[in-house]
Amino acid sequence: VVGFQVDNELFERKIIPLGLHRHMYDLSLAARNLGVTVPFFHDDGLLWGSWLGSSSPSKYSVDMYGFNLYVIFAPGSVWGGKATDKQFAAWNAKDFVKMVDGIETGFRGLGRSALSSPIFIPELQVGWFNRWGLAQDFDDLYHFYGETFSQLLFASVVAQGCSMASMYTFCGGTNWGALPDPDVYTSYDYAAPLREYRHPSSKLHLLRSGVLQPVRAFEAEFATSRAVEDRAPLAARVASIDGRPPEHEGISLLAKHRESDRGVQLC
Question: Which of 53, 105, 144, 183 sits most deeply, having the most CB atoms within 10 A of its CB?
Protein backbone atom coordinates (compact mmCIF):
# COMPACT_ATOMS: atom_id res chain seq x y z
CA VAL A 1 0.00 0.00 0.00
CA VAL A 2 1.56 3.30 -1.11
CA GLY A 3 -1.26 5.72 -0.32
CA PHE A 4 -4.64 6.11 1.40
CA GLN A 5 -7.51 8.03 -0.23
CA VAL A 6 -9.12 10.30 2.35
CA ASP A 7 -12.14 11.35 0.30
CA ASN A 8 -13.39 11.21 -3.28
CA GLU A 9 -14.17 14.29 -5.38
CA LEU A 10 -14.99 16.58 -2.47
CA PHE A 11 -14.17 19.97 -3.98
CA GLU A 12 -12.53 22.50 -1.73
CA ARG A 13 -14.05 25.45 -3.60
CA LYS A 14 -17.71 25.32 -2.58
CA ILE A 15 -20.16 28.22 -2.52
CA ILE A 16 -20.34 27.91 1.26
CA PRO A 17 -17.22 25.94 2.29
CA LEU A 18 -18.19 25.72 5.96
CA GLY A 19 -16.72 22.80 7.85
CA LEU A 20 -14.99 21.14 4.88
CA HIS A 21 -11.47 21.52 6.26
CA ARG A 22 -12.57 20.14 9.61
CA HIS A 23 -14.29 17.26 7.82
CA MET A 24 -11.09 16.32 5.94
CA TYR A 25 -9.00 16.65 9.09
CA ASP A 26 -11.36 14.40 11.08
CA LEU A 27 -11.29 11.73 8.35
CA SER A 28 -7.49 11.79 8.29
CA LEU A 29 -7.27 11.64 12.08
CA ALA A 30 -9.64 8.66 12.19
CA ALA A 31 -7.51 6.84 9.60
CA ARG A 32 -4.33 7.49 11.58
CA ASN A 33 -5.99 6.26 14.76
CA LEU A 34 -6.95 3.06 12.93
CA GLY A 35 -3.31 2.43 12.09
CA VAL A 36 -2.93 3.92 8.61
CA THR A 37 0.68 5.06 8.21
CA VAL A 38 1.00 5.70 4.46
CA PRO A 39 0.60 9.16 2.84
CA PHE A 40 -2.90 10.56 2.32
CA PHE A 41 -4.22 11.64 -1.08
CA HIS A 42 -7.43 13.09 -2.47
CA ASP A 43 -9.07 12.48 -5.84
CA ASP A 44 -10.00 15.89 -7.25
CA GLY A 45 -12.84 15.85 -9.78
CA LEU A 46 -10.82 18.03 -12.15
CA LEU A 47 -7.46 19.77 -12.09
CA TRP A 48 -8.69 22.33 -9.53
CA GLY A 49 -6.14 22.09 -6.73
CA SER A 50 -8.50 20.95 -3.96
CA TRP A 51 -6.78 20.24 -0.60
CA LEU A 52 -3.39 21.05 -2.08
CA GLY A 53 -2.18 23.04 0.88
CA SER A 54 -2.07 26.61 2.11
CA SER A 55 0.06 28.89 4.21
CA SER A 56 -2.79 28.99 6.73
CA PRO A 57 -2.40 26.33 9.48
CA SER A 58 -6.20 26.14 9.78
CA LYS A 59 -6.58 24.73 6.26
CA TYR A 60 -6.25 21.02 5.58
CA SER A 61 -3.89 19.66 2.94
CA VAL A 62 -3.21 16.13 1.68
CA ASP A 63 0.24 14.58 1.37
CA MET A 64 -0.20 13.88 -2.36
CA TYR A 65 -2.51 15.67 -4.78
CA GLY A 66 -4.41 13.66 -7.37
CA PHE A 67 -7.07 14.48 -9.96
CA ASN A 68 -9.47 12.70 -12.32
CA LEU A 69 -8.85 12.68 -16.06
CA TYR A 70 -11.89 11.93 -18.20
CA VAL A 71 -11.55 13.27 -21.72
CA ILE A 72 -14.31 11.81 -23.95
CA PHE A 73 -17.97 11.31 -23.02
CA ALA A 74 -20.40 9.26 -25.09
CA PRO A 75 -23.38 11.29 -26.40
CA GLY A 76 -26.37 11.09 -24.07
CA SER A 77 -24.45 9.31 -21.34
CA VAL A 78 -23.48 12.36 -19.30
CA TRP A 79 -25.65 13.81 -16.55
CA GLY A 80 -28.58 15.69 -18.03
CA GLY A 81 -27.97 14.25 -21.49
CA LYS A 82 -30.95 13.15 -23.54
CA ALA A 83 -31.39 9.48 -24.35
CA THR A 84 -31.09 8.71 -28.04
CA ASP A 85 -31.59 5.68 -30.24
CA LYS A 86 -29.08 6.96 -32.81
CA GLN A 87 -25.72 5.36 -33.29
CA PHE A 88 -22.80 7.11 -31.61
CA ALA A 89 -20.83 9.39 -33.90
CA ALA A 90 -17.06 9.12 -33.77
CA TRP A 91 -15.40 11.24 -31.07
CA ASN A 92 -13.34 14.21 -32.16
CA ALA A 93 -9.57 13.99 -31.82
CA LYS A 94 -9.46 17.75 -31.16
CA ASP A 95 -11.54 17.23 -28.00
CA PHE A 96 -9.03 14.61 -26.86
CA VAL A 97 -6.05 16.91 -27.44
CA LYS A 98 -7.78 19.81 -25.70
CA MET A 99 -8.29 17.78 -22.53
CA VAL A 100 -4.94 15.98 -22.48
CA ASP A 101 -2.41 18.47 -23.81
CA GLY A 102 -0.88 20.54 -21.02
CA ILE A 103 -1.44 18.11 -18.14
CA GLU A 104 2.10 18.61 -16.84
CA THR A 105 2.04 22.41 -17.03
CA GLY A 106 -1.45 22.51 -15.52
CA PHE A 107 -0.45 20.27 -12.61
CA ARG A 108 2.78 22.15 -11.85
CA GLY A 109 0.97 25.44 -12.36
CA LEU A 110 -1.15 24.76 -9.28
CA GLY A 111 1.97 25.54 -7.22
CA ARG A 112 2.45 24.61 -3.58
CA SER A 113 3.18 20.90 -3.15
CA ALA A 114 2.28 20.19 -6.80
CA LEU A 115 5.58 21.77 -7.81
CA SER A 116 7.52 18.75 -6.60
CA SER A 117 5.04 15.92 -5.92
CA PRO A 118 4.44 13.08 -8.44
CA ILE A 119 1.88 13.77 -11.17
CA PHE A 120 -0.87 11.50 -9.85
CA ILE A 121 -4.13 10.51 -11.63
CA PRO A 122 -6.23 8.28 -9.32
CA GLU A 123 -8.91 7.92 -12.04
CA LEU A 124 -7.60 7.68 -15.60
CA GLN A 125 -10.42 7.05 -18.05
CA VAL A 126 -10.61 3.80 -19.98
CA GLY A 127 -14.35 3.84 -20.74
CA TRP A 128 -17.62 5.20 -19.39
CA PHE A 129 -20.83 4.09 -17.74
CA ASN A 130 -24.11 3.48 -19.57
CA ARG A 131 -27.10 4.96 -17.82
CA TRP A 132 -30.79 4.09 -17.83
CA GLY A 133 -32.83 4.94 -20.94
CA LEU A 134 -30.16 4.62 -23.62
CA ALA A 135 -30.72 2.30 -26.56
CA GLN A 136 -27.00 1.53 -26.78
CA ASP A 137 -25.31 -1.11 -24.67
CA PHE A 138 -21.74 -1.47 -23.44
CA ASP A 139 -20.63 -3.14 -26.67
CA ASP A 140 -21.66 0.06 -28.46
CA LEU A 141 -19.67 2.07 -25.93
CA TYR A 142 -16.66 -0.20 -26.43
CA HIS A 143 -16.71 0.40 -30.18
CA PHE A 144 -17.33 4.13 -29.65
CA TYR A 145 -14.08 4.53 -27.72
CA GLY A 146 -12.21 2.03 -29.87
CA GLU A 147 -9.43 -0.39 -29.10
CA THR A 148 -6.63 2.20 -29.05
CA PHE A 149 -8.26 4.81 -26.76
CA SER A 150 -6.84 3.57 -23.44
CA GLN A 151 -3.36 2.97 -24.80
CA LEU A 152 -3.31 6.44 -26.40
CA LEU A 153 -4.43 8.17 -23.20
CA PHE A 154 -2.01 6.22 -21.02
CA ALA A 155 0.93 6.99 -23.32
CA SER A 156 -0.05 10.68 -23.46
CA VAL A 157 -0.01 11.21 -19.69
CA VAL A 158 3.14 9.14 -19.15
CA ALA A 159 4.92 11.24 -21.80
CA GLN A 160 4.01 14.33 -19.75
CA GLY A 161 5.59 12.96 -16.60
CA CYS A 162 2.69 11.14 -14.91
CA SER A 163 4.27 8.49 -12.70
CA MET A 164 1.18 7.38 -10.72
CA ALA A 165 -2.13 6.44 -12.34
CA SER A 166 -5.05 4.14 -11.62
CA MET A 167 -7.21 3.21 -14.60
CA TYR A 168 -10.95 3.53 -14.04
CA THR A 169 -12.24 1.10 -14.47
CA PHE A 170 -9.81 -1.56 -15.61
CA CYS A 171 -12.12 -4.50 -14.89
CA GLY A 172 -15.86 -4.38 -15.58
CA GLY A 173 -18.30 -5.77 -13.05
CA THR A 174 -21.94 -6.19 -12.09
CA ASN A 175 -23.98 -3.50 -10.37
CA TRP A 176 -25.75 -5.02 -7.35
CA GLY A 177 -28.53 -2.75 -6.15
CA ALA A 178 -27.28 0.84 -5.97
CA LEU A 179 -23.62 -0.26 -5.85
CA PRO A 180 -21.47 1.24 -7.34
CA ASP A 181 -23.67 3.81 -9.13
CA PRO A 182 -27.46 4.34 -9.02
CA ASP A 183 -27.32 5.89 -12.52
CA VAL A 184 -26.31 2.53 -14.00
CA TYR A 185 -28.40 -0.56 -14.61
CA THR A 186 -27.31 -4.10 -13.67
CA SER A 187 -24.19 -4.19 -15.83
CA TYR A 188 -21.15 -2.09 -14.90
CA ASP A 189 -19.09 -3.31 -17.83
CA TYR A 190 -17.84 0.27 -18.44
CA ALA A 191 -16.37 -0.81 -21.82
CA ALA A 192 -13.37 -1.79 -19.70
CA PRO A 193 -10.25 -3.54 -21.02
CA LEU A 194 -11.28 -6.63 -19.03
CA ARG A 195 -14.98 -6.87 -19.76
CA GLU A 196 -17.69 -7.72 -17.22
CA TYR A 197 -17.83 -11.32 -18.41
CA ARG A 198 -14.03 -11.56 -17.97
CA HIS A 199 -13.17 -11.33 -21.65
CA PRO A 200 -9.65 -9.92 -22.16
CA SER A 201 -10.42 -7.48 -24.97
CA SER A 202 -8.13 -6.17 -27.71
CA LYS A 203 -8.05 -2.93 -25.72
CA LEU A 204 -6.45 -4.87 -22.87
CA HIS A 205 -3.74 -6.37 -25.08
CA LEU A 206 -2.85 -2.99 -26.59
CA LEU A 207 -2.83 -1.35 -23.17
CA ARG A 208 -0.58 -4.09 -21.82
CA SER A 209 1.95 -3.48 -24.58
CA GLY A 210 1.94 0.24 -23.73
CA VAL A 211 2.48 -0.41 -20.03
CA LEU A 212 5.40 -2.72 -20.81
CA GLN A 213 7.21 -0.12 -22.95
CA PRO A 214 9.04 1.47 -19.97
CA VAL A 215 10.10 -1.99 -18.82
CA ARG A 216 11.51 -2.81 -22.25
CA ALA A 217 13.33 0.53 -22.31
CA PHE A 218 15.32 -0.50 -19.21
CA GLU A 219 15.61 -4.18 -20.08
CA ALA A 220 19.41 -4.19 -19.81
CA GLU A 221 19.34 -2.59 -16.35
CA PHE A 222 16.76 -5.07 -15.06
CA ALA A 223 18.65 -8.02 -16.54
CA THR A 224 21.81 -7.14 -14.62
CA SER A 225 20.03 -6.34 -11.34
CA ARG A 226 19.95 -8.44 -8.22
CA ALA A 227 17.13 -8.73 -5.68
CA VAL A 228 17.80 -7.39 -2.18
CA GLU A 229 15.43 -8.29 0.66
CA ASP A 230 14.40 -5.48 2.98
CA ARG A 231 11.83 -4.71 5.65
CA ALA A 232 9.97 -1.42 5.34
CA PRO A 233 8.06 0.33 8.13
CA LEU A 234 4.87 -0.36 6.18
CA ALA A 235 2.83 -3.49 6.72
CA ALA A 236 3.67 -4.78 3.25
CA ARG A 237 6.86 -6.68 2.67
CA VAL A 238 9.26 -4.68 0.52
CA ALA A 239 12.09 -6.03 -1.59
CA SER A 240 14.16 -3.52 -3.53
CA ILE A 241 16.02 -4.35 -6.70
CA ASP A 242 19.52 -2.98 -6.46
CA GLY A 243 20.22 -2.43 -10.13
CA ARG A 244 23.80 -1.25 -10.36
CA PRO A 245 25.60 -2.54 -13.43
CA PRO A 246 29.17 -1.24 -13.79
CA GLU A 247 28.16 1.60 -16.11
CA HIS A 248 24.99 2.63 -14.23
CA GLU A 249 23.81 3.47 -10.75
CA GLY A 250 20.27 3.28 -9.45
CA ILE A 251 17.62 1.42 -7.50
CA SER A 252 14.33 0.21 -8.99
CA LEU A 253 11.13 -0.68 -7.13
CA LEU A 254 8.57 -2.95 -8.78
CA ALA A 255 5.12 -3.83 -7.44
CA LYS A 256 3.19 -7.05 -7.87
CA HIS A 257 0.09 -8.57 -6.29
CA ARG A 258 0.43 -11.16 -3.58
CA GLU A 259 -2.11 -13.87 -2.93
CA SER A 260 -5.57 -12.34 -2.47
CA ASP A 261 -5.48 -12.80 1.31
CA ARG A 262 -2.05 -11.26 1.73
CA GLY A 263 -2.47 -7.82 0.19
CA VAL A 264 0.05 -6.20 -2.15
CA GLN A 265 3.75 -6.87 -2.28
CA LEU A 266 6.44 -4.45 -3.43
CA CYS A 267 9.42 -6.17 -4.94
Answer: 144
- β-bridge mates for residue 168, sequence order: 125
- The structure's pTM equals 0.79
- The b/e string for 219-234 (b: 16+ C-beta within 10 A; e otherwise) is eebeeebeeeeeeeee
Residue 41: CB partners within 8 Å, gap ≥ 6? Answer: 3, 4, 5, 6, 62, 63, 64, 65, 66, 120, 122
Asked if residue 41 lies in contact with residue 62, where contact means CB atoms within 8 angstroms, the answer is yes
Half-sphere exposure of 149 (CA within 13 A, CB side): 28
Distance, in Å, from the CA atom of 186 to the CA atom of 178, rounded to the nearest integer, reads 9
Distance (Å, rounded) from C-alpha 195 to C-alpha 126?
12
* Pairwise CA distance, residues 231 & 96, whole Å: 43
Backbone angles phi, psi at 169, to 5 degrees: -110, 135
pLDDT profile of the chain (267 residues), mean per 10: 89 73 91 93 91 76 92 74 66 92 93 88 92 83 92 92 91 82 84 93 90 76 66 38 44 54 44
Furthest-apart CA atoms within the chain: distance in Å? 63
Tell me phi and psi for residue 83, to 5 degrees: -65, 145
C-alpha to C-alpha distance for 101 and 246, rounded to whole angstroms: 39
